[in-house]
């Protein structure tokens, strides 16, 4: 008797039950934690998906918004959509992770934003956890956390050093000092750090 062909949902359930969390091999020096890279996440999932007649596809898509004044559609941005495909032709997809970059004309920053979106989209669709779940805690960190940093004046944070920069030259010196750590951090934290530098640069430019 021929083996019964499994349905898309049967294969998906089997794959999701077998996929484990990827190895957290990359270091985040700013929060003293580890995270799983996109490469590790894909390596962890692809073989299991293939064994169960599935594959993953990630697409950069634009989305539109309604302009109320002109009653027309306008370009609003890009999202990274993750699809899980089955040999039957069926698939599921998420609504997309926004691709956010402060400087859309900088290919390196855009590349980091796309990698970040791919990593989080993939892990979300496959139920994987690839971080120590610090991002949310950092974003909602109470004000008193800053007081702890100030309580030890012998160790200034990057943000404090940037805030004390009196010129663009000072700012560039600080960036060079931390460049290696910045390059080794996750795309999400790189964006956060770039935002700190950009904000200070804007203030210095405004004062000149």
Structure description:
With 208 residues, this protein is an alpha+beta fold. The chain has helices at 8-18, 38-51, 107-126, 135-139, 144-150, 158-164, 168-184, 187-207, and strands spanning 26-28, 33-35, 54-67, 72-86, 91-93, 97-98. The strands form 2 sheets. Strands 3, 4, 5 and 6 form a 4-stranded antiparallel sheet that branches. It has a two-stranded antiparallel ribbon with strand order 1-2. Helix 2 (38-51) packs across helix 3, helix 3 (107-126) packs antiparallel against helix 8 and helix 7 (168-184) runs antiparallel to helix 8. It is flat, with a radius of gyration of 22 Å.
Instruction: Return the string of H and E elements.
Output: HEEHEEEEHHHHHH
The number of strands is 6
> What form results from the Cα inertia axes?
flat
Known CATH architecture of the largest domain: 2-Layer Sandwich
How much of the sequence is in beta strands? 15-25%
Counting DSSP H or I runs of 4 or more residues, the number of helices is 8
Derived from helix and strand composition plus strand pairing, the structural class reads alpha+beta
Radius of gyration: 22 Å
